[in-house]
Write a structure and sequence with these properties.
The chain starts with a helix and ends with a helix. The chain is globular. The protein folds into 3 domains: 224 residues, MetI-like fold (Orthogonal Bundle); 238 residues, D-Maltodextrin-Binding Protein, domain 2; 174 residues, Periplasmic binding protein-like II (D-Maltodextrin-Binding Protein, domain 2, 3-Layer(aba) Sandwich). The protein is of the alpha/beta class. Helix 1 packs across helix 11, helix 2 crosses helix 11 and helix 4 packs across helix 6. It contains 33 helices and 20 strands. Strands 1, 4, 5, 6, 9, 16 and 17 form a 7-stranded mixed β-sheet that branches.
């Protein structure tokens, strides 16, 4: 009796382990929560977003079309391969069966990378033809179809083919009317296996897909790296729907009699084919339309679909609302402004390195939005197209960028040079900020977060997080390494401070890297986790009390915590901070001196720099635009809308922002005093923070190798240290 109880308990625990996470996700999909950890009210908004967002429907439809095409090809090839192997001589059969096992056990990442090298790099096949993608997934699926068909062949009378020939069938008739009919159950099983593999594949698809195409797998993985938005939470609903469809299908299959397996498989095939109706398809390109390929970080632009209550109404009566995506609005604006149609093919990437790898492995983009150091690297390699002189003409009405860029940002872009050329000639700013620390003031003192070394303090053991980013973490390590010098008043107040600061923060010499590695290794041991996105949720849910954070994500963390009744704060340590920015660039190899395409590319940058669109993007992603507005006060009005004190407030303070908005412009905000260390402080850091900030430049190849090896040493498990501690 007790044994049965233990068996039942064990089965229950196993089932809970398998299904409880899925059930949790399903519960969250029916709430208003924007992150796992805090449940907020029942809502169907995730499902509404899922079934009304064209981007998601297009992605789902494209995924199923790809799976269908790949599965048909794989079933055909796998079946023919199994038949050919079955009727081969014994020693040849063994060799072929062994060869079929290799791709089955081989890692997908190896298959994907090999296909990329062979088809894209060596043979020069363009990813946009979809040939590498279909070929790669077919190479994955075909061996599994072979394994599904071969058992049916072995159960079949081996002489049935010869008998059909003796009765007058041609070889093709014998295959179609006799052999294939015997193999239908195995073929359908192989087909469904191929469908599953195609839907689930990530690595091969990542290496071989066109830049503007995503499957469910690649879309979900990439979306989880970005900021928390309605699109990301809609993926919770997608996961729930997929699970329910599979669960219902499995239940129905098991309710059918065992003798109807062939009919069951055929029914599954019909259901799958019906699913293809969700596809939105790809419209044909109209003749004369300019196609502009844009690559940007995930969820780094307004994608529209705002709710009515999200409408922004500024003090001057201006109303701003994101109904359609920024790309759709640009297409309409461009045709109206220039009398020419443009179609934006918009794609995303996770990191600057991923963007660089995509371009190296064959993806072609006209406009990209990398960070400052990647812009410098692309400049150094001669891969960027310089902006035309017209782009800098302030008298042109639609040149919103040059007329509205902050004087501070413009001065930074003028100072930064690569190969003697100013960065502003090749890069137009998009978003910017600094690095600091989000902290819980109830758990951490203001004095503690005034120094980066608090991340080493064992008083906060496993209660802080650090960035899983070699450059950002290395910068903090250098700040701790040079803490004494950076706080020396004689250096700060003396001449050459900014130059010295930049030199220290960009030092990749062997000695400096080794010393920084020791600091960061200790920090890693003290940290709760290395993260790029989860730190925001960890702060809100109280798992950690301090989080190394970019200023834009800091604003998000503070906003979310405030909704849950938790007051967080943001600080930039006194030693130094990393001044970062992302900017738009035009790729020389894609534009190929095409004047129409370059005009469209520059117009894209200008459209995003129009003050109302600046506000839409800032609201949607939470980061700070480089645009101050120029002749327009809208951006300042938006800052006042977000952080200005109410008329009845008494505990207020002036917050000067002249450095950003410039003279002769409204530039001093009256804000709640608490905002001096909260969202306003993060969104528009005070001038003294910028005075002690430095830009991380593009490192040399040798420097990159050193810090990459350093980061591998920090991130990887050190078995020698583990043995010593034992």
């Amino acid at each position: 009796m007790s044994r049965k109880i233990l068996q039942s308990l064990w089965l229950f625990l196993v089932l809970m382990f398998l299904y409880l996470p899925i059930l949790f996700l399903a519960v969250y999909s029916f709430t208003e929560s924007t992150m796992i950890g805090a449940i907020r009210g029942f809502s169907l908004k995730n499902y509404i977003t899922l079934f009304t967002t064209g981007e998601l429907l297009h992605m789902i439809g494209g995924t199923f079309i790809l799976a269908f095409v790949v599965s048909v090809i794989s079933t055909f090839l796998g079946t023919l391969g199994a038949i050919g192997t079955f009727y081969s001589r014994p020693h040849i059969r063994k060799t072929l069966e062994f060869a079929n096992q290799i791709p089955v056990v081989n890692a997908d990442v190896v298959t994907g990378f090999s296909m990329c090298i062979l088809l894209i790099i060596f043979l020069g096949i363009d990813k946009d033809t979809y040939i590498p993608l279909v070929a790669g997934q077919t190479a994955l699926c075909t061996p599994f179809v072979y394994l599904s068909v071969m058992p049916r062949l072995k159960q079949m009378d081996p002489f049935i083919y010869e008998a059909a020939l003796d009765l007058g069938c041609t070889p093709s008739q014998a295959l179609r009317k006799v052999v294939f009919r015997e193999l239908v159950p195995g073929m359908l099983s192989g087909f469904m296996t191929a469908v599953t593999l195609s839907l689930d594949d990530y690595f091969i698809t990542t290496y071989t897909k066109p830049a503007v195409f995503d499957t469910i797998s690649t879309y979900v993985v990439n979306a989880t790296k970005g900021a928390q938005t309605s699109i990301k939470t809609a993926l919770w609903a997608l996961s729930t729907v997929i699970f329910l469809v599979v669960a219902v299908a499995v239940v129905l299959m098991n309710l059918r009699p065992a003798g109807k397996r062939v009919r069951r498989a055929a029914c599954m095939f019909v259901i799958f084919t019906g699913c293809l109706t969700v596809s939105t398809g790809c419209g044909k390109q109209e003749e004369g339309t300019v196609v502009l390929r844009v690559a940007n970080s995930e969820e780094y632009i307004d994608e529209g679909g705002w709710d009515a209550e999200e409408r922004i109404e500024l003090a001057d009566g201006t109303q701003i609302m994101g109904v359609r995506s920024m790309a759709d609005d640009f297409e309409a604006w461009y045709e109206e402004t220039y009398g020419e149609k443009v179609r934006v093919e918009y794609s995303t990437y996770g990191t600057n390195e991923e963007l660089y790898n995509q371009m190296t492995l064959g993806n072609t983009f006209d406009v990209v939005c990398p960070s400052e150091y990647m812009i410098m690297k692309l400049m150094q390699e001669g891969r960027l197209q310089a902006f035309s002189e017209d782009f800098f003409d302030k008298s042109e009405r639609t040149n919103y960028y040059i007329k509205g860029v902050s004087p501070y940002i413009e001065s930074v872009f003028r100072r930064l040079k690569m190969g003697g050329e100013e960065l502003r000639r090749y890069g137009a700013g998009y978003m910017w900020g600094v690095m600091g620390i989000v902290y819980n003031p109830d758990k951490v003192s203001e004095e503690a977060v005034s120094h980066w070394s608090m991340l080493l303090d064992d008083a906060y053991y496993k209660q802080i997080t650090m960035k899983d980013s070699v450059r950002d973490s290395y910068f903090i390590g250098l700040g701790i390494l040079h803490e004494r010098e950076l706080l020396d008043p004689s250096l700060v107040q003396g001449g050459g401070y900014k130059e010295r600061l930049s030199e220290w923060m960009n030092d990749t010499s062997r000695q400096t890297v080794d010393r920084a590695e020791k600091i960061l290794s200790d920090m890693r041991k003290n940290a709760y986790s290395l993260e790029t996105d989860s730190g925001k949720a960890d702060m809100v849910t109280g798992k950690v009390v301090a989080n190394m954070q970019w200023s834009g994500d800091a604003v998000y963390s503070l906003d979310q915590a405030e909704e849950d009744g938790v007051q967080l704060a943001y600080a930039v340590p006194e030693e130094c901070s990393n001044l970062w920015f992302d900017g738009w660039c035009m790729m020389k190899d894609a534009l190929k001196e095409d004047a129409r395409k370059q005009r469209a590319a520059q117009a894209w940058i200008n459209f995003l720099s129009r003050p109302d669109n600046v506000i839409r993007n800032m609201y949607y992603i939470g980061y700070t635009s480089v645009i101050s507005g120029g002749d327009s006060n809208l951006v300042y009005e938006y800052a006042d809308y977000c952080y200005g004190a109410d008329s009845g407030s008494t505990d207020t303070a002036e917050y000067p922002m002249e450095y950003f908005f410039g003279e002769g412009h409204e530039n001093t905000l009256i804000a709640e005093r608490s905002q001096l260390e909260r969202q306003l402080y993060a969104q528009y850091p005070p001038e003294d923070v910028l005075d002690r900030s430095a830009v991380m430049m593009c490192f040399s190849d040798e420097g990159n190798k050193r810090i990459s090896q350093m980061w591998m040493n920090i991130r990887c498990f050190d078995w020698r240290e583990w043995l010593e501690n034992k």
